[in-house]
Amino acid sequence: MRLTIRSKLVCSSLLILVVVSFAFTLVHLRLSRSWVEEDLRERAVTFAREIAATIGDRREFESGPLLARQIASILEVRPNVLQLDVLRFGDAGTEVVATSEPRLRLPFTRREVERVRRGEVVSRLVRDGGGRAWEVIAPVTLEGTVAGAVAAKFSLDRADALAARVRWAALGVTAASVAVMGLLMGLVVTLVVTRPLGRFMAAIRRLQAGDTAAAVDVATGDELGVLARHFNAMVARVRDFREELQARIKEATAELEGRYREVERLNERLFALQRSLSHAERLALAGRIMAEVAHELGTPLHSVMGHLELLRQDLPVEGLPDDVRRRLAVIEGELRRMTEIIARLLDLTRRPPGPPELVDVAQVVGQCAEVVRPGATAAGLRLEVSAAPGLPRVRGHAGQLQQAVLNLLTNAIDATPPGGRVRVAAAADGGEVVVEVRDTGAGIPRDRQARIFEPFFSTKDAGRGAGLGLFITTQIVREHGGRLDLESEVGRGSAFRLRLPAAA
Ligand SMILES: Nc1ncnc2c1ncn2[C@@H]1O[C@H](COP(=O)(O)OP(=O)(O)O)[C@@H](O)[C@H]1O
Ligand SMILES: [Mg+2]
Hints:
By secondary structure, this protein is of the alpha+beta class. Helices cover 59% and strands 18% of the residues.
């Protein structure tokens, strides 16, 4: 069972109150009882002395019947005197002169009698079947000597009955006052402690439910008031903190959203770039094939033209039939048209991409890395880029070199499983600038290493690889007067090294 603070306070103070009040009441009762006893003893002594003093001479002392009458009349008016004896100290011992109780003699000891004989008054408290009583013995002095004594027994019954009544009344009053004090204490505890605490509890419950406007309304100057002020200050701090946190979360969320959009945009760009790359690969190949075809057809065409010329010189122009001459003219015309078409084609495909310039390879490498970085990150790869400082430039076309490096990088990313690493580094080596693209991917079996440079060789799904990347890269490198090396180990990875002569 859980006790509330109120019941703990009320119960403990009531307990203290009960113990202390009843202890005080009991001590008080005991003290007053002993004071009453003492008072009654003094009265008994005074009474015995007075009686002793009334016995004025020896004659009176010796007339027993007279004394007996006096005793009887005294006892009539003093009902609390249970017994009254007049004793005489003779040579033979103590003898009773007169008594109210002839059957019983008050049992004073020899020593007590001795003390009385010396003039002292002796008293003692006795308890018998009838209740408590004071027994007093006072000396009777005649002509300067102690001739006898007056012994009296005083009942304490009335005083004891009164004391009992007083005791019950006192205990009742104490009990009632304890009850009243308990009630008042409960009231005070409620007002001073329970109610303010209830307000605290309500505020804490509101705070737990998320209401940061919760405040405690305790305006007292005591500790609870101080506590309430601290509590309210703390709630205000929590509120500020929460608002700040929410603002920060909002900010962070917005930033994250921005970043996410950026990544999305980059991914889209990468995708578009990859698509346009394979489109460019195809276009470039078509051009190269066309150039090849034109070149291959040009030579026999020239030879046919030469033979036709020789034939014309050998044949007599006049002797020819008209339709033969016409047919020869058609052949010549068609051949010339073909030659022209081929010349134009060759002219078109061989057209250089502009005059060569000085290219900063480090910049080319950096740009390529930024293009593929989103794709590498999405594939769970670490992309490392480095360029030795002060690299010499190479003579050529930045766009083409970029295409070559991009081909190598996309291949490396495609070949490397998540968690792997792709590194592109540019460095100088002798009179050459070397761009190395190294991966920790699948590697290329030895028997396949020559074939991957052939056009249309691809191990990738249709739509992902056209098999032209390495072919075009080889062409571009060759056109720049450089070469492409390969070093690969199955299961460990590959390194493609692009070597370009540095510009003088
Ligand atoms: N870094 C590499 N690691 C493993 N295999 C590679 C790597 N680069 C190229 N290859 C292999 O060479 C083939 C040809 O590459 P490529 O000519 O770029 O064509 P594509 O990428 O379209 O397949 C790829 O399909 C792949 O099998
Ligand atoms: Mg490729």
